[in-house]
Amino acid sequence: MANHKLIVSPAPHLNSGLTVSKIMWFASLALLPATAGGVYFFGTRVITIIGVSILSAILTETIILWLRKKPVVISDGSAFLTGLLLALNLPQDIPLWLPVLGSAFAIGIVKQTFGGLGHNIFNPALGGRVFLLLSYSKYMTTGWGTPKDGTISIDGITSATPLTVFSNANRLILDPNTAENIKATASQHIHDLYSPDSLFELFSGNVGGCIGETSALLLIMGAAFLIAKGIITWHIPVTFLGSLAIFTWFLWIPGAGEPFQGNVLFHLLSGGAILGAFFMATDMVTSPITRKGKIIFGTGCGFFTAAIRIYADYPEGVSFAILLMNATTPMIDRLIKPRKYGIHSLRSL
């Protein structure tokens, strides 16, 4: 009788039909509505910013792969997506050399230093944005243009983002040395941000902000496409936005008032919350692989975003929050392991 051997190939054994290339290009396609919205709200210069950012990312990837004597594969779309995401996270009046530098840093340092696609610890686009924010904060925090019919502003700040208005006013309110009349004025500015008209502007995108983060409506359209295609699941976005809503509702204490006063809709619709929750926190390489791990990851992103927005000097915390949780992903994956097939858990014994 012949001695037959059972040969089992390495996992995974099911093929969904999705490839790295398809995932990257689907994600880029999902960002098309927000990209078009950025051009509509802030003008055609946005196209140039996006173009140079993408070109810098592709050229940097090509050069480094060539120097490493690795196959130069650009068609997978990963460098394109990194350049696009970075551009959508930049102010519309930024000097053109900054997206070039940011994309080069994102690909060359954040991605390729760790071994390239699939090996990077941090989200490359966010790494590039935070590098620019910390190194060139003047350009990254003052380059806000005026969207068509934009009306959000505060004394001493022209065409400020809604979160900048909130942060400046909130800082005055929480400072015990601030005069009561100034606190009253600052409180009124925050209540103006919470008005139905202001919230509608945030939802539609007709406010100051980064190129691709202002319109919650257009971003949600792209996110729905990714979910329908099975590129992302609900776990990280829902827990990210859910915990952000809970923590901003609880943490914001106006003056000497009571907690539970924060406006949930304002914090969900403003800044990069939607863009970060659906398009960057869900990065497969830098987020946990299990469902429980994704829930922990998303909750942490929401908590750190809320804490930075309310108590830190920077008005926005999405980028820092996601990068912080990126650093915890290996630990989460070690602690939250799926049960091996055929092995009962201790609870079932």
* Quaternary structure: single chain
| Count of spatially separate domains | 2
Radius of gyration: 22 Å
So what's the overall shape? Answer: globular
- pLDDT averaged over residues: 84
Strand percentage: under 5%
Structural class: mainly alpha
Q: Uncertain spans, ≥5 residues at pLDDT below 50?
A: 149-159
Largest sheet, described in full? none
What is the H/E string?
Answer: HHHHHHHHHHHHHHHH
The termini sit apart by 40 Å
Q: What's the number of extended β-strand segments? A: 0
How many DSSP H or I helices? Answer: 16
Helical content band: 55-70%
Which features characterize this protein?
single chain; 349 residues; mainly alpha; 2 domains; 16 helices; 60% helix; 0% strand; globular
What does this structure look like?
- Helix content is 60%, strand content 0%.
- It has 16 helices and no strands.
- Residues 149-159 have low confidence and may be disordered.
- The longest helix is centred in the first third of the chain and has 23 residues, at 45-67.
- The chain folds into 2 domains: 20-142, no CATH class; 193-335, no CATH class.
Short description:
By secondary structure, this protein is mainly alpha-helical.
Layout of strands and helices, then pairs:
Layout: H1 20-30, H2 32-42, H3 45-67, H4 78-88, H5 97-111, H6 124-135, H7 137-142, H8 162-174, H9 180-193, H10 196-204, H11 216-229, H12 235-251, H13 264-269, H14 273-280, H15 291-311, H16 318-335
Helix pairs in contact: 1-4, 1-11, 2-11, 3-4, 3-5, 4-5, 4-6, 5-6, 6-16, 8-9, 11-14, 12-14, 12-15, 15-16
